[in-house]
Write a structure and sequence with these properties.
The protein is an alpha/beta fold and 301 residues long. It contains 12 helices and 8 strands.
């Protein structure tokens, strides 16, 4: 977490944040509301969505929930993401569309969802700066950037006095690790918060797909995710996790969550799911503090 809040009156990011990639795809409004209600009740203050999640449906569901529950602005930070193209006009249009779906006048945290060559251009970074200066966005984030890409953008932002990226959000779990030491060092040097997602690797680290992709699962509904995990190195790491689960008596999902929550430099972990029990599971994982068990998790190469 940066030494200073992301913006005045911002709540703490917190160790657990709620992602919403399942909204509109694996679960609909009623179940999504139950999931968000449980997260809010347990003190989660950081909710995350994206324009690309089910073509904006996730943002719409979250916006309906916000309108229904009316949490105070000081109690909740809502993040969303926009996708390329990152021309100034496209950024303006996408930001307005996300705000409209969320039903908000100001977006708390706006990410670029992936790196694109346009991020290297002054026009793009100036357009993002304009969103902050005009009050349409409170803070900026970068998602799925590597250290070189993020470092170049931060250097350009500093050189021109533009609003800088304050948060990095990358995939990071025991199977596939997209937060490397270079990113951790860069984030520390620039006081960026690191938020990671997919702590149980879309269910891969539960081991439930050992006999093949489970029907109705994330990998079944979004088969493009399969090559990321169904390869030798993630499979080897899953086997090591299952062995540690057998020895410790802890479920693989809890161990995977504990691994993600104890990464150096990581401020928060985005969790998701199809029901309130997944929020409770994440809080259960926070209680795993046995140093020998955590060291054994760290030792899985």
């Amino acid at each position: 977490m940066p030494a200073q809040p992301l913006y005045p009156s911002a709540p703490a990011i917190g160790r657990i944040a709620l992602g919403s990639s399942t909204f509109g795809r694996e679960i609909q409004s009623d179940d999504a509301f139950l999931l968000m209600d449980r997260a809010l009740a347990r003190g989660v203050s950081h909710f995350d969505t994206a324009a690309t999640y089910t073509a904006g449906v996730s943002e719409t569901i979250m916006g309906q929930w916000l309108a229904s529950r009316r949490p105070s602005p000081e109690s909740l930070m809502v993040a969303t993401k926009i996708y390329p193209p990152y021309t100034p006009d496209a950024i303006d249009t996408a930001t307005a569309a996300s705000a409209r779906r969320l039903g908000v006048d100001v977006i708390d945290l706006l990410y670029l969802h992936k790196w694109d060559a346009a991020v290297e251009t002054p026009e793009t970074l100036a357009a993002l700066d304009g969103l902050v200066r005009s009050g349409r966005v409170r803070a900026l984030g970068a998602s799925n950037f590597n250290a070189q890409q993020l470092g170049a953008a931060l250097t350009a932002q500093a050189a021109h006095g533009w609003a800088r990226f304050r948060v990095l959000q990358n995939n990071n779990n025991l199977a596939v690790r997209d937060v490397d030491p270079a990113l951790v060092t860069l984030a520390g040097d620039h006081a960026l918060a690191i938020v990671t997602y997919s702590p149980i690797a879309a269910g891969f680290l539960t081991g439930k797909h050992r006999a093949g992709v489970v029907a109705g699962s994330r990998f079944d509904m979004a088969p493009g995710h399969q090559p990321i995990y169904f390869s030798p190195e993630p499979q080897r790491r899953l086997a090591a996790l299952e062995s540690l689960s057998d020895l410790s008596g802890q479920p693989t999902a809890l161990l995977a969550l504990a691994w993600a929550m104890n990464r150096p430099g990581v401020s928060a972990v985005l969790i998701g799911g199809r029901g309130p029990q997944y929020v409770d599971q994440a809080f259960d994982a926070l209680q795993i503090r046995d140093p020998d068990l955590l060291r054994a998790l760290d030792a899985i190469p």
